[in-house]
Amino acid sequence: MNIVLLIIIVITCVTSYIGFQQPELFQKYKFEVGSIQRKKEYFRLLSAGFLHGDWMHLFFNMYTLYAFSSIAFMGFGVGGFLAIYLGSIILGNLFCLYHYRKVPFYSAIGASGGVSGILFATVALAPNEIRIWFMPGFLFGALYFGYSVYMMLNPRVHDNIGHAAHLGGAFFGLVYAVAVYPEFAMQNALYIGIMALPLIYLAYEIIVKKRIG
User: Fold this and answer.
1) Closest C-alpha among 199, 178, 174 to residue 187
2) Which residue in 10, 27, 85, 165 has the most C-beta neighbors within 10 A?
3) What is the pTM assigned to this prediction?
4) What 8-state DSSP symbol labels residue 136?
5) φ, ψ for residue 61 (rounded to 5)?
6) Of 114, 119, 102, 108, nearest to 26 (Cα)?
7) Burial class (CB in 10 A: 0-12, 13-18, 19+), 51
8) 159-182 pLDDT, tens per residue?
9) Nearest to 12 by CA among 91, 114, 87, 93
């Protein structure tokens, strides 16, 4: 296991465990719209990515990160991996901040934005070769984006999943990969285009129909 990945997993596990034990610390560092808007506590955009709601949430995120890390390190190096992971957490939470800007009590935690960024950055390198749950990566990506967009536009009561953070993180990872390897993007333009269709629809909803916010 890469030492950088190990450090991220250890820090995330330790901080999440401390958050389990100390609710006041959890409250101080989680993503919360009101605290960011009123108190300018922008550190929450990143710190929330190192907290989790329970052991299952923590395990799923860290396992997924581990599963795709080797391809990400080979494709982007240590610096690129960190840029994608941390950048995806921040952008995912920024998108959450925009989406829920009129809901000051909205809060969230978890590394899902960063994990989504790593996952989609790796898929962008070989969208038809990488397999996820026995399906081509680009098809998984299209379904993932489609589901997240649908749930954002049609929110359900008691759905505690941060779909906006997932979308923001995945988008950052996808764009980063395309920017770093434009030749791969050209070769796989059809697959990446299919995967990005739900994002195009979301942009239409935001810009034309203005359904968000």
Assistant:
1) 178
2) 165
3) 0.88
4) E
5) -65, -45
6) 108
7) buried
8) 556 778 888 999 999 999 999 999
9) 114
